[in-house]
Amino acid sequence: MQTSIMRIDCPDQKGIIHAVTGILLxxxxxxxxxxxxxxxxxMHFFMRTEFAGNSDPLYMHAQLKKLLPEKAHIEILKERxxxxxxxxxxxxxxxxxxxxxxxxxxxxxxxxxxxxxxxKLKNLVEGFGLPFHYTPHDAHSRQxxxxxxxxxxxxxxxxxxxxxxxxxxxxxxxxxxxxxxxxNIHHSFLPAFTGSNPYLQAYQRGVKIIGATAxxxxxxxxxxxxxxxDAIHIDHTYGPEEMKQAGRDVEKVVLARxxxxxxxxxxxxxxxxTIIFE
Amino acid sequence: MQTSIMRIDCPDQKGIIHAVTGILLxxxxxxxxxxxxxxxxxMHFFMRTEFAGNSDPLYMHAQLKKLLPEKAHIEILKERxxxxxxxxxxxxxxxxxxxxxxxxxxxxxxxxxxxxxxxKLKNLVEGFGLPFHYTPHDAHSRQxxxxxxxxxxxxxxxxxxxxxxxxxxxxxxxxxxxxxxxxNIHHSFLPAFTGSNPYLQAYQRGVKIIGATAxxxxxxxxxxxxxxxDAIHIDHTYGPEEMKQAGRDVEKVVLARxxxxxxxxxxxxxxxxTIIFE
Amino acid sequence: MQTSIMRIDCPDQKGIIHAVTGILLxxxxxxxxxxxxxxxxxMHFFMRTEFAGNSDPLYMHAQLKKLLPEKAHIEILKERxxxxxxxxxxxxxxxxxxxxxxxxxxxxxxxxxxxxxxxKLKNLVEGFGLPFHYTPHDAHSRQxxxxxxxxxxxxxxxxxxxxxxxxxxxxxxxxxxxxxxxxNIHHSFLPAFTGSNPYLQAYQRGVKIIGATAxxxxxxxxxxxxxxxDAIHIDHTYGPEEMKQAGRDVEKVVLARxxxxxxxxxxxxxxxxTIIFE
Amino acid sequence: MQTSIMRIDCPDQKGIIHAVTGILLxxxxxxxxxxxxxxxxxMHFFMRTEFAGNSDPLYMHAQLKKLLPEKAHIEILKERxxxxxxxxxxxxxxxxxxxxxxxxxxxxxxxxxxxxxxxKLKNLVEGFGLPFHYTPHDAHSRQxxxxxxxxxxxxxxxxxxxxxxxxxxxxxxxxxxxxxxxxNIHHSFLPAFTGSNPYLQAYQRGVKIIGATAxxxxxxxxxxxxxxxDAIHIDHTYGPEEMKQAGRDVEKVVLARxxxxxxxxxxxxxxxxTIIFE
Lengths: 278, 278, 278, 278
Fold this sequence. Notes:
Four copies of one chain form a homotetramer.
Chain A: E1 3-11, H1 16-26, E2 30-39, E3 44-52, H2 57-67, E4 73-78, E5 82-88, H3 93-103, E6 109-116, H4 122-127, E7 132-134, H5 142-156, E8 160-163, H6 172-177, E9 182-186, H7 198-205, E10 209-216, E11 226-233, H8 240-263, E12 267-270, E13 273-276
Parallel strand pairs in A: 5-6, 5-8, 6-7, 8-9
Antiparallel strand pairs in A: 1-3, 1-4, 2-3, 9-10, 10-11, 12-13
Helix pairs in contact in A: 1-2, 3-8, 7-8
């Protein structure tokens, strides 16, 4: 049977769960998973419900609209694979990991294409039978380069764009265009070591753990809502290169974990934070 | 305002959440936290709801009874510190940790007394102004010894009995008497290394991680429902003694974490497993 | 400059480090990394030394032989990529991960070929331009099947054979033939959940952590010397399938970590344990 | 038999290990543990050797002096419990943990006294039979307050001063006076969230891991050489208070681990980093 997902967020008030579950009951839908959360600061309510049954999204939406506060966001989604485009530069570990998962149906998404400002990963991508768009940046202004990329992306109409170690800063206008649809992996446990070469920064500071952070991209570099993070132990024998190597395994696992959560519609963006119903 | 906790489990059927939240709404209670889970194997439903408001437990219980399946277990609890008795042997780390937390209100429980078959921990316990019951086992049969302990425990009418490295096997009758109220910390990641001296077993096997498991005690040694577990990395330089030392920090943190969850009424026992609403 | 690795193990006695470093000094080799360990139980000494310089292995070996106890094992190795053959069945995550690392020079080895009793992974392997040997097992006795595999393997003269989720039990004679050269990834934190379907076992036991173990293969199933292990947290919402999915990320990282250590000649086998100089 | 520890650091050159182990061999000392490291950036050599035997430190020192580069630092230490004074403010978890370990001989140190600017922890400390010095800061300038504390500390001639959640910034002159002898626990994974109230900062940033850092104190707040760090996973349900609670368990374990390493003379300070021979 079809699995559907209902996502609601609105100012908190009494009786929301009762009202919402009443509508599901009227449709005779069986709830298979349910999560709610109230942000104490903003008194905003978030709810994600998985239910078995073939809903008429429009009708259900209308019914919910009537019962919920005026400002409520309501989404009724059928469970489906998300379409994604991946942007990469030269590093193979995150991209390669996603390609393997994609090829064997383990990522809840379909990679439509890969865009890169270098040719290094072409063979890898094409070996998986996927389009690889080589978009060098040297001959273009930043704006022009992004326009080229944007045009490619838009051809595929992706749900999300994944920055799998895409090493160029994006402009405001690019970020705005794909608001809440750009997911990046940063190779440090943010907010430590923002910007470039975090492993060198980590080496210089003499830290004993290194990590990675998957986050939505916003205008402010490395400041977007964090989805997942992890860290591993290192010691004084690690130079920047050893950190980089060890860090790759954290990066790819953290990114894949974040994508799984996003692609299963489990993640809400709450201003600069995320709420995740696992 | 008073916080109350509603705990329900029953065979799954449509409309339970709607029904239950309806009753809370009628009472004008505000739900502050809510968790549900359906065990796919047994199709059994579990729900834990925290709500603000001074409920009349009996009346609410009666209302829920009417709406829920006949076999439903229903609990309406006021949030309160649990009373506990701790059983220990010679090791200080878990007991000491609980005593510190108890002294500074960080464990959601009140330690009423400590029972031990050795005198070694007497000063520690009495230094915190708590009763220490020295109950040596040498002169007694196992049954007699447990009767003495049981009598002491019953004087304090504890909600739970915590085995903070109590190193003697308990009889069936003792375990039955305190069914679902006995919590043990085992110094391995179960089911590996059951029985005695798990660190020596771990050393002999040459493992690269060691761990700890907090679980409810049942008749079958080290087979009870697991509440929390954790593991840490070790290497070949660790002998059994070094493992023991390093393991202590895992044990005490794993036990404290389990107790917090149990004392906040977050843990359901589902035959030989636990369901935990964090 | 060439990096060489000296590996010594022998019964412990005073003066070994002094003697060995004296020989290195006479050759004017610069020690870049050095590790020693004495197993307290067996009073056996282990030493791994990395040094810069182009040694004449035979001459150095002869010199060391004179100074060390008669039973000493001595190896003088030039740092080089190891040749490996991978055996797999149907699962793509460990194999895929190794293929990516191999393609981008991140595994300190060269994959010569992949052998599998199913065809499922053929495209993946050939997409990387590597030979894939499909060796179905149905029409053959276990012995015959292994002979076929063995012949394929021997053509490539690999240093190591990696079982990247090869799901068939190997016979004693196969294991003996490749003694200390077979590395397996087992999908549990051994010694818990040996044998088949460890995630189902883990589900049934209701554990709160799952893990993976990379180990050398010996006659006794899942009893070989452990190289690396790791574990991650799960909760009651994980069925066997969710455990399997989450476990894959641990498996591939644990296997890759073990291989890196083995391929850099950092691992000694000490009866049923490993000693690892990281 | 007495265990001794030799600690050497000097500009790297060929033959150091050979020379040093030669001296140990002449004395017929048996090396039980040995670690070396060369910092590639500064080409500085570090060595820590544990050996069984009753050395004459002065004589051995003189012999080493002759063989090692002029600028070498040489320490020959007998293994012994370190004397420490603890500074605390109001939080009990780190202090309590150290008191328990101290009482049962599990910290390789002897706590001589506790100094605090609040009275809250007096009973706890005195319950363990240890002196508690209440040194309120309100009536004094920062300088005066530190003079009072310094005088108390100096009476006990401690090897190290442990800041177990001491919540006041120390002046340069205090830090200089106890150079390399002040160890602090900071409640974040540095360099993230320096300064005050890191958990609130972490909450506002919406991180998914929180951590703790034990480090030597230097003039620059939260910039001293890091000894140990760890991190744990959290989610959106954690407010600042829940982070604080969960963080306590990381803090106390991270601090205790750092202290064990320092008290066993395993830690070298290498400008703003540490080198640790575990």
